[in-house]
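Render this sequence as a predicted structure.
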Amino acid sequence: MFSLFSKETSFTLKDTLIIADDLTVTNPEKLRQAKELNAIDGFILKPNQIGTITEAMDAYNFAKEQNWVAIPSGRSGGVIDDVVMDFSVGLGVPFQKNGCPRSGERIEKLNFLMRAADLHPGCTMTDITPWIKK
């Protein structure tokens, strides 16, 4: 499946990060397959997609070893107090996916980030220049 997404065989822009979602489903084995084919630059981290926090952390650690970006994300129609926000802040990831603030659970995610910033007065926005491809 990943062969269609290999950066050697498909058209990709040189300044574009290829971020996997449903192809990898936060599964370390699928991430390894993607690595073998040089198919991605990162993945969407959904702890409830793989099933356990341990497996989600295995996927995150593998991605970190590859210098890939891991983007924690809740599921559509997710719940308030989703563990995804704890992952985002605790792991210090440069990106986090929420969707637009149109519902209570999404607004709660933004509120979580504001509370985290209040608890850590010296915190700043992440420098994303390492992720910008030229």
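Summary. Residues 104-119 form the longest helix (16 residues). The two ends are 28 Å apart (CA to CA).
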